[in-house]
UniProtKB/TrEMBL annotation:
<keyword id="KW-0472">Membrane</keyword>
<keyword id="KW-0677">Repeat</keyword>
<comment type="similarity">
    <text>Belongs to the VAC14 family.</text>
</comment>
<dbReference type="GO" id="GO:0070772">
    <property type="term" value="C:PAS complex"/>
</dbReference>
<protein>
    <recommendedName>
        <fullName>Protein VAC14 homolog</fullName>
    </recommendedName>
</protein>
<dbReference type="InterPro" id="IPR016024">
    <property type="entry name" value="ARM-type_fold"/>
</dbReference>
<keyword id="KW-0967">Endosome</keyword>
<dbReference type="GO" id="GO:0010008">
    <property type="term" value="C:endosome membrane"/>
</dbReference>
<comment type="subunit">
    <text>Forms pentamers. Component of the PI(3,5)P2 regulatory complex/PAS complex, at least composed of PIKFYVE, FIG4 and VAC14. VAC14 nucleates the assembly of the complex and serves as a scaffold by pentamerizing into a star-shaped structure, which can bind a single copy each of PIKFYVE and FIG4 and coordinates their activities. Interacts with NOS1.</text>
</comment>
<keyword id="KW-0256">Endoplasmic reticulum</keyword>
<dbReference type="InterPro" id="IPR021841">
    <property type="entry name" value="VAC14_Fig4p-bd"/>
</dbReference>
<dbReference type="Pfam" id="PF12755">
    <property type="entry name" value="Vac14_Fab1_bd"/>
</dbReference>
<feature type="region of interest" description="Disordered">
    <location>
        <begin position="312"/>
        <end position="342"/>
    </location>
</feature>
<dbReference type="GO" id="GO:0006661">
    <property type="term" value="P:phosphatidylinositol biosynthetic process"/>
</dbReference>
<dbReference type="InterPro" id="IPR026825">
    <property type="entry name" value="Vac14"/>
</dbReference>
<dbReference type="Pfam" id="PF11916">
    <property type="entry name" value="Vac14_Fig4_bd"/>
</dbReference>
<keyword id="KW-0492">Microsome</keyword>
Amino acid sequence: VLSSSLHRLVREFVAQNNTSQIKHVIQILSQEFALSQHPHSRKGGLIGLAACSIALGKDSGLYLKELIEPVLTCFNDADSRLRYYACEALYNIVKVARGSVLPHFNVLFDGLSKLAADPDPNVKSGSELLDRLLKDIVTESNEFDLVGFIPLLRERIYSNNQYARQFIISWILVLESVPDINLLDYLPEILDGLFQILGDNSKEIRKMCEVALGEFLKEIKKNPTSVKFAEMANILVIHCQAADDLIQLTAMCWMREFIQLAGRVMLPYSSGILTAVLPCLSYDDRKKNIKEVANVCNQSLMKLVIPEDDEMDEAKQSTTLPTEPASEESLSKPEAASSGESLLPHCGRSELDITALNQLLSFPCSSERIQVTLNLDGIVQVLDCHLHDTSIGMMTRIAVLKWLYHLYIKTPRKMFRHTDSLFPILLRTLSDESDEVILKDLEVLAEIASSPAGQTEGHGPSDSSDVRPGPVELHIPARASQLSSSGTKSLECSPSTPTMNSYFYKFMINLLKRFSSERKLLETRGAFIIRQLCLLLNAENIFHSMADILLREEDLKFASTMVHTLNTILLTSSELFQLRNQLKDLKTQESRNLFCCLYRSWCHNPVTTVSLCFLTQNYKHAYDLIQKFGDLEVTVDFLTEVDKLVQLIECPIFTYLRLQLLDVKNNPYLIKALYGLLMLLPQSSAFQLLSHRLQCVPNPELMQT
């Protein structure tokens, strides 16, 4: 009855256009009833306000603030029944006002977001009805204030309550579906919150969030020109490292699309991206999907680095893009590469002015090239950290080495600023358990040792202890260039010209030092490492420089062992076929110089010296040396080496030597040398082998000179 009377009274005031009386009625209903201390009065006030709104009809929009505020206050009432009546009252107010409530949307949304988590099922049911009504109004209107709503959405999206999260996601899905509302512009504001909701314990909420993120990604692919990639890059970097598999996979898929769509816009964030992506490359089959997407991200990012990045003037670029501090001064500071600062905060500092970045970096089109600076310091720091981390998997280590090789190919001038700091860890990586890792490591070291950029003044070896003594000169570079120009020697497998730069000799010295300190490495991987280097670099340079270094080796036992290893490689490896042919004939001055260099170091080991004489067909000298063996202490190791030499003589490499046994008249010292070896051997299988071979020499009488 009261409601009916109130309805008639308000209708009369409306007919009379008596605004003051209408406001007076609403004020009484609010202050004396809805906000009263007595529950029954509050209930009556809520019913009265709803009746008043219905009576006002389309004019209710003029009094919405006065009508809505007391009702929203009752949303916080301790009595669940009053909260339900408040929902019902607000439903009637909104239903009458329709689009007129949109200016008050934020306060309505705020109230509803709290009721969505209400413990009372009736209140929750009532709030859902009101929520659907409000969604219908927003969907059919073109006056929704998205700019004003985003701050509230950004705040509420971090709620940990499941029902509140479900409420938030449902609204995001609705706003995404409205053509006139471009929520994509404000995605950077809510993306982090969405990824956090994706980790909710409720499968339903996770699924809803997946759908919302999927819709956003579809929109990004359709309209990449309007996407603020730079503002979201670091958000993705953080979630690509999430412990939750779904969050990590989703973030990684987004990262893949961002790199492919935005291209070089993503380069300033490379260090953060690599921090997130590289560890994923070593995941096992349980995380196969994440690993595959991470691999695509890694490959796509690598392709963004171009030779022009090596030519850009850092000072100019730093003024063009203030978000990328890459001045000459910062690049030259060693602290930048060795500091223990967190990588992600470092990325954040370099990308503070996101708005400026987006203004300067418009989306690439076919006729433009975006000018961005490659933050090489940050990338190298990340790669260096991963190489030092012994816990990372094999595939990650391989990826790190591929990155270093790629950077030395694309940006050699800038990379050589970091070579002194990278060199020690690259040498230590040669002790890795994996052959694949060692191969990639050797490729990087070979590129460092052969790149013309390494010859630049000021980029030479900085460790004075590793620099060879002054009087010793290695003349290989001139000889190599002469051979190349004359066409007698083709280029090796290295992408760079096979010439010796400032780091080549440093590499050889440190490699031999590593073999000396790690004898197990020499035994298990020494031959493998040297053979691969002979493929990647100039084999003659390697043998010449190592022989030169070993000539001054103070540890004579190591020198003997190393010479024996090098000799075995020289005589047996297919990679050294060309060098063996060069030494076999000694027709050129270069080959004779090489023989002399090798001979001096090979003298650390008597048996290898004889084998070198056999290879170079210096049979008389071999015979003279064997004659001297009688003055040496004959040990088990010595006899073992003679045994191995006999085995080598029976190998295909010495076919020419065995054929020369047919020409007894012209090769008497060859036969004498072989008999000398035979006399050194005890009665053993090697003795029998060589004895049978010498029995095959035709007409022994011809051996007399």
